[in-house]
Input
Amino acid sequence: MNIGKLIKSKNVNVTAFFNMAGPIILNGISFFTVPIFTRVLGTANYGIASLYVTWVQIFTTIIGLQTSGTISTSVVHFPREKQNPYRSSVITISCCSLAVVSALTVIFIEPIKAVTGFSTFVIALLILHSFGAFSLNFASSVFIYQKEAYKNFTFSLLTATLTVVLSLILILKVFPQENNYLGRIIGLAAPNTVIGIALAAAIVARGKTGFNKEYWKYCLPLCLPLVFHGLSQTVLSQTDKIMLKAFYGDSAVGIYSFAVTVSHILVIVWNALNNTWVPVYYDHMKAGDYGVIKKRTKNYIFLFTVLTMGFLMICPEVVKIFANEDFWQCIEYLPMLAVSSYMIFLYSFPVNFQFYYKKSLNIAVGTLFSAAVNIVLNYFLIGKFGMKGAAAATLTAYTALFIFHQLIAKYVLKEKYTFGIKTYYKSIISVAVTLVLYYLLADFWLVRWVLAVFLGVSLLYKTVKNKAIF
Output
C-alpha cells in the first residue's frame, strides 16, 4: 500500500494515529509555546487572555447549541445517504442561534461588558471566535465519523500554526506591553473564525439542506440537554478561575491557568483517544460484541492509566521547563488537577454508553450536579486555601461526576452495561498510589524519572505485543 492510500485508509490504527496527532499537535503547539506567552504576557495579561478563552468556551456552547454532539448517534440511526443532508440541516440550527445571540449581544452590550470586563471590540471578536470554534468542532466530528482523520490532522496543524504565529506578531510588533493580551486574543480569534466559517460553508454546500423537519426533530431533543451539559462542563472547569480572580486577582488566575494547561495534556490525549474509541465502541455495540468490548476496554484503561502515572512522575520538571519561577508554586497542587483529568477519562465510559442510547438528559443532569458541587466547594475552599483549594474542589467534583454517571449507567438504565466497578478499581488504586509517591518523592527527581521510563517501556511493550492501541 502506498503512502497516500495508507493515510486515507480506515484502518483503526491509522485512524487512531491521526485522531491523536491532530488534537495533540493543535494543543501541543499551544502548550510548547506556553514558555513564550507566559514570559511576553506576564501573569496578569496571561490571566486576562485565559479568561477570554473561558468566555469563548461558554459562548461556543450557547451559539453552537451542541449540534455537533448529535453526529455520533446520527451515524447509528441514519443511513449513509442521509448523513450529508443531516449535517447541513443541523448546522443551520447553529447559524440561527448565532443570529439570535448576536442580536441579544447588541441589545445588552453594556451589561455584558460589565460582567466580562471586555471592550465592545473584544466582545465582537468573542462572538465570531465562538462560532468559528463551534464550526471547527462540528467539522472535526464529521471527519471522525467519516473516518477521514487525516483531514482533522491537516486542519489542526493549520489552525495551531496560524494561531501561534499571528499571536506572536501582534504581541511583539503591534500592541504595547500594558495591553498586549489583545495580540493573543486576536491571534486566537482570527484563524479559528476564518477556518471554522469556511468549513461550515463547505458542509452546507455538500449537504444542500436547510430546514428539514425530520432532522431538526431528531437533533433538538438530543442537543438541547447537551447545551446544559456543555455549560456545566465549562462551569466545572472554569469557575475556579473566575472565583480566583474575585479573591486574588489576575496574577493568581494566570498561575492557576498555567497549571490547568499543564494538566490538560492528559485531557488532550484522552480526547484524541476517545475520538477513535467511540466509533469503534459503537460498532461493537451495534454488533453485540460484548466480549470484544471488554477486551479492548481493558487495553484502553491500561494505556491511559500508565500515561497518567508517568505524567505524575515528571510534571514538576515540565513546569520548570515551560515557565519561569513566578509560576512554580503550582507544582504543589498540579497532581490534583492531573488526577481530575484521569476522572474525566473514567467518566467517559458511562457517558458514551448513555449517549449511545440517546440519554443526553441524564448526561446534562450529572454535569449540572458536578458543577454545583464545584461551585460550593470553591466558595469555601478558595478563600481559605487559595489555588490549592480550587484544585481540591475540581478533583472532588470530577470524582463525583464519575460516580454519578457510573451509578446511572449501571443501575438506572435498563440496557446492558459492561463496565462494572471491577473494570476500574485496579487502575484507580494504581493512580492513587502514584499520587502519594509524587509527594513522597517530590525532591527525588531522578527516582521519579526512572519510574516514568519504566512505565513508558511497559506501555510500549504491551502496545507492540497487542499490535493495537485498544
User: Anything to note?
Assistant: The first helix runs from residue 3 to 8.
